[in-house]
Design a protein that fits this description.
alpha/beta; Arc Repressor Mutant, subunit A; Rossmann fold; 2 domains; 7-stranded mixed sheet; globular; binds S-adenosylmethionine; methyltransferase; transferase; SAM-dependent_MTases_sf; S-adenosyl-L-methionine
Length: about 325
Amino acid sequence: MSMNERDGVEEDSSWADASLLVGLPAAVRAALVLNVPKIIDSVFPILALSAEEICKHVTETQGRPASPQNLEKIMDYLCCNGIFSMTIEEEEKNVGFFRVKKYSHSKFFYKYLVEEAPELQQIYVRQLKGSSTQGLKLLTEKYDDEFNTLKGRVVDVGGQEGAICTGLAAKYPHLSFINFDLPEVIRGAPRISRVEHVGGSFFEEVPSGNLLIIKFCLLNWNDESCLRILKNCRKALAQERSGKLLIIDRMDRSADTVTRDEDVKARTASAFANFFGSLVLNGARTRTLEEFRGLALAAGFSALEFVHNYPGFDLMEARV
Ligand SMILES: C[S@@+](CC[C@H](N)C(=O)[O-])C[C@H]1O[C@@H](n2cnc3c(N)ncnc32)[C@H](O)[C@@H]1O
């Protein structure tokens, strides 16, 4: 119970607790069981469907009936909690116009963070900076010789505010760096010596370099989008005869045998990325080594090999 300031009346907040503790997990579960995020992705580029349309896909793909009336209630509730968005469209049917609720994924996650949730963005940046320390350790342990003998420019693709470039620039003063991310993210990035911040989209073009790094970006996208990103990375290495793209990502570890604590951590990190990604990031998922290799080869790389891993951090290299 808490005090309602305006009326001085004791307010019962138990319904809100029940909503968060019971209602939200149940609604999220129902949406996942019915495969709603993937169904919405599958109608790209429309990306907004009514409950009735979603249920039609459920019947076609899963062979079981789903009730549009019930799904609408679930989707409305998930929209209230920011998991999906809803718009109302007018649709013509044989007896006139009807107002129909259409559901889509909520605002693109990274724009939402920067534009609407700066406090959450700060937590997110802090968390990723922590993960960059691990990423840096992995890169400098495995590629120290390569960085020492490399000449030219390293590009961190989707590097956020430049944590990886900062660490590498301090350790390898003979190299120059580009930290590449969305313009709205780059706007808030701090100045870093020998690091140029470049704003743009990896779906359009990636700045050229002698070595490219991409950390925790591919897991945010479906296969089609990953292929576009990888093709642009391959183009950015066009001048290099032995160029490499170093990929740090989370592999799909759902089928791994779990014996050590480290394995449990790795599998949990991977499962979290898979679950969270599919809800807020339009078709995101973790991938097996074979799936990464298939995408890299399709993008024009000649090979992709697994290099090393820490729990939750898988390092691979794609070769030109
Ligand atoms: C999970 S974060 C990883 C950030 C950083 N690489 C790290 O591991 O700390 C994904 C990054 O991709 C960036 N991103 C999303 N869409 C992008 C686009 N179209 N072009 C370039 N960067 C993008 C985001 O702004 C975000 O910084």
